Amino acid sequence: MKTIKTSGIILGVTLTFGGFSVFVRPALAISPTQQQLAISTDRMNTEGLFERGTKKIAHGDYQGAITDLDRVIELNPNYIEAYCNRGMAHLGLGNLSQAIDQFDLALQVAPRHADALNRKGIVLAQQGNLDRAVDSFGRALSFDSNFVDAYYNRGKARTGLGNLQGAISDYDEAIRLDPTLAEAYGNRGFVRAQLGDKQLGLEDLEQAAKLFLDLGDMAGYQQTLAYIQLIQK
User: Fold this and answer.
1) Which of 69, 128, 154, 212 could be disulfide-bonded to 86 (CB atoms 3.0-4.6 Å)?
2) Distances in Å between the alpha carbon of 150 and those of 6, 30, 81, 168, 174?
3) Domains, the chain, with CATH or none
4) Are 76 and 85 in contact (CB under 8 A)?
5) Phi-psi region of 128 (alpha: psi -120 to 50; beta: other; left: phi over 0)
6) d(CA 6, CA 150)
């Protein structure tokens, strides 16, 4: 999870690169025609390019990923995850408007696609459009009520809007669904401290520090310790 800091509040941005498993066409009972061979080859090319493009995102080669994903979409204009991952590649390059365009294209294909709505919300939040981000996360949750990232991200956006009680409710849900989500404990703890409940805030931050340490995330651990010291003053 990539972490940013805004107005003294811990804000993390979940960048999850996912996609469909590789689809393998069953063997044909008869000898394939040239047309069937071409279709099969295109399918293999599409999946291979998608996987390669996704790996390039993970390694920071965003432009290379876009090139691969452009070709995937040429071969299959309905490949939702290709639009989503191309959006994340644009986000990696700082092209926020282009990233949103990609998520909108995915939503044209599948209007109820919760992951596309969540990712769009992330970019809207980075643009400072927190109200629209909250709406996008809420729409994602209307289609998938167990979407941990959407609760967590809406909590961050609500924190930025000053809706601290709403943020706590979202962090509560994220933690209920994923009790190991250190960032949710950290954000909830800081918000609780802002609301004047330092004891519960410190308990959350201490739990966050423990989880970060268990995960081997020393940067998250050290940052959380710094917030604990700040609140204890």
Assistant:
1) 69
2) 19, 47, 17, 14, 8
3) 34-146 (1.25.40.10)
4) no
5) left
6) 19
Record the tokens describing residue 47, joined without a space: 């999946």
Q: What angle do CA 17, 175, 222 make, to 5 degrees?
A: 75
- Tell me the Cα Rg of the chain: 20
DSSP 8-state assignment for residue 113: -
pLDDT tops 70 at residue 32? no
Tell me what pLDDT residue 156 has: 94
- Listing DSSP states for 117-165 in one string gives HHHHHHHHHHTT-HHHHHHHHHHHHHH-TT-HHHHHHHHHHHHHHT-HH
Does residue 3 carry a pLDDT above 50? no
Q: For residue 212, is it left (φ>0), alpha (ψ between -120 and 50) or beta?
A: alpha
Instruction: Count the neighbouring beta carbons within 10 Å of the beta carbon of residue 232.
Output: 10
Residue 14 pLDDT > 70: no
DSSP at 73:
H
Q: Model confidence over 142-192: pLDDT tens digits? A: 999 999 999 999 999 999 999 999 999 999 999 999 999 999 999 999 999
Can you list the positions of beta strands (E) in the chain? 2-6, 9-13
> What token pair was written down for 170?
């979202």
Q: Count the neighbouring beta carbons within 10 Å of the beta carbon of residue 92.
A: 18
| Residue 24 CB neighbours (<10 A) | 9
- On whether the CB atoms of residues 221 and 213 are closer than 8 A, the answer is yes
DSSP-based three-state secondary structure for 207: helix
7-11, 21-25, 210-214, range with the lowest pLDDT: 21-25
